[in-house]
Amino acid sequence: MSDRADKHGEDVFAARVGANAARKQRAQRAGDQGVWFGLGMSGLIGWSVAVPTVLGAVVGVWLDTRHPQAFSWTLTLLFAGLILGCFNAWRWVAQQNASMRDKDNHE
């Protein structure tokens, strides 16, 4: 019974090593694409944070000129846009991470 458990443990270990080796080989084959892909993704994440932040600031300036309040609409909506953009970027990165993990588990 001990031999059977040892054999199972070796099979699991061999499967993990094989999956890691395959992932590394795919990464090496896509070496040139990796840098450009990474730069593109960082740009995409940057825009997903910047756009809501700038839109919040623009709407805030417009509200400050049309409907002045004791607080600043610009700062309030700028902060809200920043929070929304960061949440959006975090959610997108989490989805991409989950997708990559699923792909690695299926191969």
Number of domains: 1
Largest sheet: none
Number of helices: 3
Taken as a percent bin, the fraction of beta residues is: under 5%
Which whole number gives the mean pLDDT? 82
**What is the 3D shape?**
elongated
Multimeric status of the protein = single chain
Helix percentage range: over 70%
Radius of gyration (CA) equals 24 Å
How many E-type strands? Answer: 0
> pLDDT below 50 for ≥5 consecutive residues: which ranges?
none
Helical/strand content category:
mainly alpha
Order of helices and strands: HHH
Distance between the termini: 30 Å
Tell me what the structure shows.
This protein is an all-alpha fold. The chain has one domain. The chain is 92% helix and 0% strand. It has helices at 2-29, 31-66, 73-106. The longest helix has 36 residues, at 31-66. The model has no long low-confidence stretch (mean pLDDT 82).
